[in-house]
UniProtKB/TrEMBL annotation:
Name of this chain's protein: Heterokaryon incompatibility domain-containing protein
Top-level taxon of origin: Eukaryota
Protein's organism: Noctiluca scintillans
Length: 415
């Protein structure tokens, strides 16, 4: 009996460890996916989008050659560096299996918004829309695109909410901005916007004739970000969103002290159980199924570990502003940079949260990028180094304002 009990306890401990290891693996994957383009980004040229008679699904658009695919973050940044603009359209589906109503009211409203952006930017505009940009017939490909949703949103220059006042194709109920805010998938896209790039560059299109307008604070106050309190046609879809939401939370934990993320971090801190429910039910009073379980605790512990790695590093702003070779020596010694190439008039300042190895650090012209090789990074190679700094030349000051993960490593964006 004693032996049986002992074996049972040992088996239980092994199972607990196995589940914890699996949960930890999910958390790490969620964090990495939130900082990388884990699935190609499919977009459509504005002129092709505006010429559609009806909404066309991803597979049909692909077969007709209407889609462009970005396979890496670098490709997206190259397009944007040449003046290109990406518009992300968020909307409520107006049918159980069709995103628009019989009159194509939603598409016409979207086309109006895209036309305005094209006219005002005078640059090439590409459009991301779920029905055309995400696989509709292959569940595996669809799941991968959902995992990449945070990256898609963060790379967009304009986030457009399309919410015309029309009837639902199947229920015949009136839909609009209020019902948009109730939909779980719409809340997910809004949450991704808030966590990945803040509540900036948000626009609203209410019909096919009115002007596209920026969202007001009153509009935002009526839009809920509690994803899992939203309405899902298929409740099991909530399980698909656990890892993307976890990944977005990792972004907030790392960047929450910056001004544009303070609001969402404060909201999350006030009601974590609403943002990250442990379980959910498929139907009222039914059996509970796991959603986040202990994943949130694991993510927070992981983030604390990463922060603790940075606590031993001095603030770069405390470093003396020295000439090139002296600064290079400091960077090599303190921050483990292998090679640093800086002109004499350039200095680096700011908070270096984690050590990282950078094979070569060359300050290019404003608007260019600096590539960081992930294979030479110190610590965990998750693409979350979070460097910040300032490069000043004789003319002006260039601030590194973003870190973009890529398949090869990291890109420091500025200017």
């Amino acid at each position: 009996v004693v032996l049986a009990i002992s074996l049972s306890l040992q088996s239980h401990r092994l199972e607990v460890r196995r589940r914890h290891a699996l949960d930890k693996s999910r958390v790490r994957k969620a964090e990495l996916d939130a900082h990388s383009l884990c699935h190609p980004m499919a977009v459509m040229r504005a002129e092709d989008f505006c010429s559609m008679e009806v909404m066309e699904c991803h597979e049909d658009c692909r077969d007709q050659g209407k889609l462009l695919f970005f396979d890496s973050t670098e490709q997206v940044l190259q397009f944007k560096s040449q003046g290109g603009v990406i518009a992300f359209i968020s909307h409520q589906w107006l049918g159980w299996s069709d995103p628009d109503n019989e009159d194509c009211a939603q598409l016409r409203s979207m086309q109006r918004a895209v036309a305005v952006i094209t006219r005002t930017t005078r640059e090439q505009v590409l459009v991301w829309l779920d029905y055309g940009s995400v696989a509709q017939r292959n569940p595996c490909a669809q799941a991968m695109a959902i995992s990449a949703l945070p990256a898609y949103v963060s790379l967009a220059d304009r986030f457009i909410i399309c919410a015309p006042d029309v009837r639902h194709r199947d229920t015949k109920e009136f839909c609009g901005l209020n019902t948009y805010s109730l939909r779980g998938w719409c809340r997910m896209e809004m949450f991704a916007k808030a966590c990945s790039s803040g509540l900036e560059h948000l626009y609203l299109q209410l019909d096919s004739v009115s002007e596209l307008r920026a969202l007001t604070s009153a509009d935002l106050s009526n839009l809920s970000l509690h994803v899992f309190e939203g309405v899902f046609t298929e409740p099991r879809d909530m399980e698909k969103l656990v890892e993307p939401v976890l990944g977005l939370y990792s972004v907030v934990l790392k960047c929450g002290s910056t001004e544009k993320f303070k609001s969402i971090r404060h909201s999350i801190e006030l009601s974590k159980d609403r943002f990250f429910p442990a379980t959910y039910s498929l139907q009222e009073g039914g059996c509970r199924r796991q959603l986040f379980g202990n994943l949130l605790a694991i993510m927070e512990e992981l983030m604390r570990e990463e922060v603790s790695l940075g606590e031993v590093l001095p603030e770069c702003s405390d470093l003396p502003k020295q000439v090139s070779h002296e600064l290079a020596d400091v960077c090599r010694d303190m921050f483990e940079f292998e090679d640093v190439c800086l002109p004499e008039h350039v200095h680096v300042s700011g908070s270096f949260k984690r050590a990282a190895r950078i094979s070569e650090y060359v300050v290019p012209d404003a608007g260019d990028t600096v590539q960081v090789d992930r294979s030479t990074m110190a610590r965990r190679p998750t693409g979350c180094c979070f460097l910040s700094g300032t490069c000043a030349d004789h003319r002006d000051e260039i601030v590194f304002d973003d870190i973009v993960p890529s398949e090869g490593g990291l890109i420091l964006r500025y200017g």
